[in-house]
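From the shared-data thread, chain only:
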Amino acid sequence: MRTIFWCLVVAAISLAVLSCADPLTSDSTQPFRAIPIPTRENGYSNFESIAIRSDDELNSFLRSLSMQRGWNNKAGFEVSVRDAKVDFSKEALVLLRHTEGSGSIPVEFETPVLQARKLIFSIRGKPIPPGYLGTADMAYYCFAVAVAKSKVSQVELNSLHGFSVHRQTSIVFSIVEK
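Structure, as tokens:
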């Protein structure tokens, strides 16, 4: 029963992320598009949030995964990232990581806000209801987006952890290559 619940939670989060934006095209007015990747994966513990701005950076990042252990489906993640066909002349790939101290905490990927040329993403872990202890397993999440370089120069990630109701310091990534 618990497995079915978490499958439904992950499906709902994935659907919310995918419905946030239309795919980018050369004449698109959208600042980003969601990349469908597995939302929860043990292997996400191997890296932090990152902005990837070129094919070389993507290849280097994927090579760094080759020696990592602890993945449920590393190949599925790599295929999803490659199948996104990010056009690095127009886009940057941003992987937004989030960790929770319990797999019982529902995680919400909120609709991003564009302020000037900064795209602000928030990932929020919902507190465990009173009287429910939750599980003792760590849960690693990642959301992937392709960001239009013509619309966005920075991406900010805000995280709020549900288990301890602790806000992580905001992380800001440059989208434009230096």
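DSSP finds three helices and nine strands in the chain.
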